[in-house]
Amino acid sequence: MAITDFFAGEIATELLKQLFMISAKAWKYKSVAERLIDLIEDIQPTIKEIQYSGVELPPHRQAQIGMLSNTLEKGKKLTEKVLSARRWNVYRQLTLARKMEKLEKDISNFLKNQILTHILADVHLLRANSDVRFDRVDRSLEMMTEHLGSMKIGGGGMIREAMKIAEATMEIEMGNEEEKFGVGLEIGKRKVKKMMFSAERGLIGISGMGGVGKTTLARELERDVEVQCHFENKVLFLTVSQSPMLEELRAHIWAFVSGYEGVNPVPNWNLQYEGGVKTQKLVILDDVWTREALDALTFNIPGCTTLVVSRSKLTEPKATYDVEVLREDEALSLFCLCAFGQKTIPPGFDKSMVEQIAGECKGLPLALKVTGASLKERPEMYWKGALQRLQKGEPADESHETRLLHQMEASLENLDPTTRECFLDLGAFPEDRKIPVDVLINMWIEIHDLEEAIAFATLVDLSHKNLLTLGKDPRLGSSYASYYDVFVTQHDVLRDLALHLSNKGKVNIRKRLLMPKREKALPKEWGRNIDEPYRAQIVSIHTEEMDEMGWSDFEMDFPKAEILILNFSSDKYVLPPFITKMSKLRVLVIINNGMSPAVLHDFSIFANLSYLRTLWLERVHVPELYNTTVPLKKLHKMSLILCKINNSFDQTGVDISNLFPKLADLTIDHCDDLVSLPSSICGMTSLNSLSITNCPRLSELPKNLSKLQALEILRLYACLELKALPVEICELPKLKYLDISQCVNLSCLPEEIGKLRTLEKIDMRECFFSDRLSSAVSLESLRHVICDKDVAFIWEEVEKAVPGLKIEAAEKCFSLDWLDE
């Protein structure tokens, strides 16, 4: 049954309550609130009949229900915003009133199409058909019982074969129309659901080797309609990883199961509830490595079920489902789909060779996908060479998972040397963590001497070959795209492969010196040969809190190091003293994975980084700039993400343009204490790109912006308190791209905007302007404007005057996603 929280009555009920409150208290919204109440009350009888039907709807009907549910969920958030809005903020009241009217229009349009009526008709039809199908299933079970009853216990093989036939028969009788690679996934789902729905099962598990499809099965269960219905759409999916942030995960789980956020410390897990029946909830913990981590994240609360996904068996045998590799026919179908784009071997191709290569993958889904993608569109002779390499890389005395690394290594053979090196660089990042695309591209630009466009193409190529997962984002690949908030991920087995290949040989001679997982201190083997220099070009360290004593045994010399990545989890962190010996360091990435910004100590050692070109600081306190006694003369790009600025830019006597004389790209994102930019920032004559995004307290820009003569890109995305752009912005001679989207308090563009003769693109989504731009007809280079539908009219005259101009009216006039931040 396709049931969401909406059809459980929760969202609709809460929304109605808030609409009644708005109708009673907020007279400005009274009429629209009353109309919304009428709409929702009219559809409630239909909702209840669908809710209690007990049938599973087809995917397109589930999607339609999901659309309405999402709309009402956003409406609930919007009404919360209306109820908390301050009366004196007239502009905000006007903006929210428009959004309420848009909500009414969206719901009304949905109902005009009579979609709920069609869904209800499908419910009646499916209910009738299911009665017939279940009769056939019952007959199949009776036949299976009779068949098994005629067999002896000793005939184990016959029994297993009979069970397979029976399970396949049930799949056919249930009439599942979705395409699958055999019944393995559905059988797994059914077995795990049976354990889930059993009242006495509070902790159940999915186990199997890496790459066998455990996470795929868990994700399918997360989306399964019966699971959503049983747990009333209350399902939480979390990735734990080999180096888990246990306190952060505990807090997240506690907020989910209790409904209380921000509780610190988290109460004892094993507390007992008294009273009536509790709401059913499901917590899925993916990629759990140790029993200790599992014990820290599980609890004894009635109504809550925990599903553990792990390479090891961490739950009782009776409560564990072991994921098996694909059958031979399933494996061949998956391999062919990745290699040929179809589930069968094309006519004329060497069938025996294809079957042998697929067979070498031993039914492991990840190996089949990666190997198939690597051979796609390759000549047949290349396939023969690949088969020979796969056969040679399978030692008989190694485990299946170890053999996988050899097989996966053969899949890298068709990569050009640079792309292969880029793949190996991915091992420098922690497991199960999103990797910022911006960091990757900057690394590849510096260490592999790639142009930015080539680096991006390499990223896409690795994604197409299933060697990484590139997040879907409409900005990817577009002109003036930014990548600091776009990420890639990589499967554990692929990361293991990168580490396996990078960690060969003596520590001192490795090209990459990488820590496979987070540790309290550096690996001991790193300190055994400190009398010899280390040849590593990339150094990646992943620890907890580090102080002077933690570094004392590792006085290492890195004369060739060009990239240093420091991942840690703490409130304070002493930078490694050996940075002073990294005379060729060009990229420094410092990421705190803790829950609050960290204080960095010994930041003065930056004075020795004369070759540093890229600096990425994430979730740290930006240090006082006057401690940087020597300017970073070659620093080209600086990114401050989720940092505390602490007035670092406002110190008297600090001239930022002197500290960073060659800075071309400055990004400040999600820094919630940034109120203003110093005027000295306008002295950066080399600045080409300035991005100040998601900084809610930024209220104004420097008046002398016109001094930024080289500036081509200006992003001011989601600066909610920014009320005006300085008129000096119209004096920027090279500005090509302006992004002011989600600057909801920005009421207009400067009147002299027409002076920006080089401006090519403007993004102004969720900016509610009402005045036409008379001077904008002079924007002769303008090619693309993105805005909301209800303000597109202000560009009508400009569209007539500027040839080739595209006015893209966004489908959604506003997004409420930022309310969740």
Automatic annotation (TrEMBL):
Top-level taxon of the source organism: Eukaryota
Gene3D superfamilies associated with the record: Helical domain of apoptotic protease-activating factors, P-loop containing nucleotide triphosphate hydrolases, Ribonuclease Inhibitor, Winged helix-like DNA-binding domain superfamily/Winged helix DNA-binding domain
Residue ranges constituting the RPW8 domain according to the UniProt record: 1-149
GO molecular function, one term: ADP binding
Keywords, sorted A to Z: ATP-binding, Leucine-rich repeat, Nucleotide-binding, Plant defense, Repeat
Biological processes annotated in GO: defense response
Family indicated by similarity: Belongs to the disease resistance NB-LRR family.
Protein name according to UniProt: RPW8 domain-containing protein
Organism: Brassica campestris
Taxonomic placement: Eukaryota, Viridiplantae, Streptophyta, Embryophyta, Tracheophyta
